[in-house]
């Protein structure tokens, strides 16, 4: 199949960027207020982090499903359906008046947001292997910008009412659906017999059979394990960051205004996330292509994970010092590490398999990442209740195990001829 013209590829990359950006703005809006919205409904720190885990559980269960389904029926219908589900989930979140409904809302939004593997597959459809990391960096930049605007909007609207950001996120999801319906093209029109066979032989979700099938490729087992370890540790930090800021800089006092504490903590959490987003956008949107050409994905992956591991270990020290402004500098340092790690992981994974398996394998990678976001938050709340520094120290140790695993990745993944040749 002949490759698409370069101008067509650029248009597709822009459309994917905008689609993922709008999706992530909606997701990012929720982050600053979620812990405190749940606390208002009676949630403990453990329940707060389990709420985040419920969102990720659905991504784990259905990330590979969306990716494999996109291999079979196309990328466009998968993206449209998933965006609609996420938008409905945010609407229910804003209407929730008890924890059961809140969990239901997060699970529905997680089901819809499990579409990153399909979005990555669109990038893989539209870019040659040598520029794949730069293409994956487009999604990383969308994440970064989403985490600039999303938390900023969440912090702003959260000062009006803790539920308002959820309604804004739902509205953005509706706009995203209409935009994608009008503009997003199909990049995988061919439905080959081999793809259908693979889809029916391996259940279109996360399964041991699907995992074994994907892991037969060189480098894929190591990359999958790095995904799981790295995301497990990083998500431990994500889920307790707001609670950590609240505990250190806005502790409860007898007779204090709990709503004011929640709003102040949400705003300061948003500032940290905005710094993360700005830095990640610069790294993944502007620097990653040049860095890959100079150093290669493997070196960037090892360096990025090492930075993240160091950053996690620093958080408790900042808490002991007690200077909030240091958290903003920490956010930049941490985002440099994640900005190097995420597109390098996706690029290495996509280059390790044939084109007609990219959606499924990238979806499987996202499922494992989602599993990490289930494991990490499930532990984070329990650890936080025993000591607010524990999630960060243990997370740092897990990340450095991932660094060791990453050293066993081959310098250049094996790419089959069908991956790089056109007929």
Instruction: Estimate the mean pLDDT confidence.
Output: 83
What is the CATH class designation? Mainly Alpha
Q: In angstroms, what separates the terminal alpha carbons?
A: 5 Å
In terms of DSSP E residues, the strand content is under 5%
Structural overview:
The protein is mainly alpha-helical and 423 residues long. The chain has one domain (8-187, 204-420): MFS general substrate transporter like domains (Growth Hormone, Chain: A, Up-down Bundle). It is built from 17 helices and no strands. It has helices at residues 6-30, 34-40, 45-73, 75-95, 99-112, 116-126, 132-158, 164-183, 193-201, 208-214, 220-249, 258-295, 297-321, 325-350, 358-386, 390-406, 417-420. Helix 1 runs antiparallel to helix 8. It starts with 5 loop residues before the first helix and ends with a helix. 60% of the residues are buried. Mean pLDDT is 83; it is low at 1-5, 191-204 and 413-423.
């Amino acid at each position: 199949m002949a490759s698409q013209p370069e101008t067509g590829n650029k248009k597709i990359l822009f459309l994917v960027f905008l689609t993922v950006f709008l999706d992530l703005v909606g997701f990012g809006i929720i982050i600053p207020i979620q812990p405190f919205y749940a606390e208002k409904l009676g949630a403990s720190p453990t329940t707060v982090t389990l709420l985040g885990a419920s969102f990720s559980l659905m991504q784990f269960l259905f990330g590979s499903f969306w990716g494999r389904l996109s291999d079979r029926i196309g990328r466009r219908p998968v993206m449209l359906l998933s965006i609609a589900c996420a938008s409905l989930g945010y609407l229910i979140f804003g209407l929730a008046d008890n924890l059961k409904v809140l969990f239901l809302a997060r699970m529905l939004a997680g089901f819809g947001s499990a579409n990153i593997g399909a979005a990555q597959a669109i990038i893989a459809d539209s870019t040659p292997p040598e520029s794949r990391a730069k293409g994956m960096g487009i999604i990383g930049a969308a994440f970064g910008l989403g985490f600039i605007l999303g938390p900023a909007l969440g912090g702003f609207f959260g000062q009006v009412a803790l539920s308002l950001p959820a309604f804004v996120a739902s509205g953005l999801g509706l706009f995203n659906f209409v935009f994608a319906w009008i503009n997003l093209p199909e990049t995988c029109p061919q439905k080959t017999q081999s793809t259908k066979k693979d889809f029916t032989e391996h259940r279109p979700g996360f399964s041991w059979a699907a995992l074994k099938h994907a892991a037969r490729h060189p480098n894929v087992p190591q990359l999958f394990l790095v995904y799981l370890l790295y995301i497990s540790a990083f998500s431990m930090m994500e889920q307790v960051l707001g609670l950590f800021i609240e505990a250190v800089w806005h502790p409860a006092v007898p007779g204090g205004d709990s709503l004011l504490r929640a709003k102040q903590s949400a705003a300061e959490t948003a500032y940290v996330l905005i710094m993360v987003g700005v830095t990640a956008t610069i790294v993944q949107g502007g620097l990653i292509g040049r860095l890959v050409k100079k150093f290669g994905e493997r070196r960037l992956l090892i360096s990025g994970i090492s930075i993240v591991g160091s950053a996690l270990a620093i958080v408790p020290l900042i808490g002991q010092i007690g200077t909030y402004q240091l958290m903003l500098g920490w956010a930049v340092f941490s985002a440099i590490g994640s900005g190097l790690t995420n597109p390098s992981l996706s690029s290495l994974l996509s280059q390790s398999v044939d084109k007609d398996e990219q959606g499924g394998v990238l979806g499987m990678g996202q499922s494992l990442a989602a599993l990490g976001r289930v494991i990490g938050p499930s532990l984070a709340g329990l650890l936080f209740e025993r000591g607010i520094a524990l999630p960060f120290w243990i997370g740092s140790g897990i990340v450095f195990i991932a660094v060791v695993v990453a050293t066993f990745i081959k310098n250049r993944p094996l790419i089959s001829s069908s991956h790089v040749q056109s007929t």
